[in-house]
Amino acid sequence: MIISTMTIPEIRREINLDLPYLLRSVEWKLKKLTRVRIKKKLPTIRWYFYVNSPRRTRWLIMVECIKNGEAKIDFIALYKVGSKTRAIWFGNDPKKDLIIYSDHFFHRYAERFAIRVLNIEDIISKFFFANALFVVNRDGGDCSYTFPEGFGLGQFDKENRTYYLNTYVTTEMLYKAQSEIRKFSMKKLKKYVSENYSDDFSFGNCIRKESFDPNSLYRSKQAS
Questions:
Q1: Entry pTM
Q2: Which residues contact 167 (CB under 8 A, 6 or more apart)?
Q3: Which of helix, strand or coil describes residue 176?
Q4: Is 183 helix (H, G, I), strand (E, B) or coil?
């Protein structure tokens, strides 16, 4: 189980121990997802689910069928730091970069979009399926992430190849230099989408959800 006192090498070791279980969990979901996509003639479909590994780590897994039937898989581990929850993202290779999202990051995300705070897992789910694609920029030890919905700010630990994202801001809150970074990054993001997704893809229409309605998290104009 991943715990707050672990070093990054220890976290990577724990992830590696969980990885065979995670891949088995994905295998049958991916087959089902592919059948659904073909049957309903969907160009892109994304599915997410939570699992608890035998080593007692809580995982959010996102499986996505994209252009030509290829699969994109994201693994996100959740762990506690006192009463707060952090998330660790990696693609399908834990030897590569890790991204650690702070509890503060997700609560800021919820505040920026006036999301009703039900529980932290709902907020994390909403964030990742809306922002599964991103572009990272580094400036020395500082880093920024361009997401479809906004911008993440944090630090980069070169020695451990780990990004720490501490807060989330919306596009209207960016400084001029940050806006230029986002503008450039969105061009890269759209180029990736055009090369890997169907022509009618949009970031909000490709979700298949399990027991979770993301729209229920948004306050209506009347309620706010």
A1: 0.83
A2: 102, 104, 105, 108, 152, 153, 154
A3: helix
A4: helix
CA dist 49 and 106 (Å) reads 18
Residue type, 104: H
Q: Are strands 162-169 and 98-101 parallel, antiparallel or unpaired?
A: parallel
Give the residue among 96, 35, 20 at the shortest CA–CA distance from 65.
35
Q: Beta partners for 64?
A: 46, 72
Strand, coil or helix: 22: helix
Q: At what angle do helices 120-130 and 103-112 cross, to 10 degrees?
A: 70
Nearest-angstrom CA–CA distance, 150 and 154: 14
pLDDT, one tens digit per residue, over 171-209 is 888 889 999 999 999 999 888 877 776 655 554 443 333
Q: Distance (Å, rounded) from C-alpha 199 to C-alpha 85?
A: 37
Q: Kindly state the DSSP code that residue 84 receives in the 8-state scheme.
A: E
Give the integer Cα–Cα distance in Å for 196 and 201. 10
Instruction: Give the span between the Cα atoms of 214 and 224, in whole angstroms.
Output: 17
Residue 45 has a CB neighbour count (10 Å cut-off) of 18
pLDDT tens, 115-145?
Answer: 776 688 888 988 988 888 899 999 889 999 9
User: What single string gives the DSSP state of each residue in 112-175?
Assistant: HTTB--S-HHHHHHHHHHH----EEEEETTEEEEE-SS-EEEEEEETTTTEEEEEEEE-GGG--
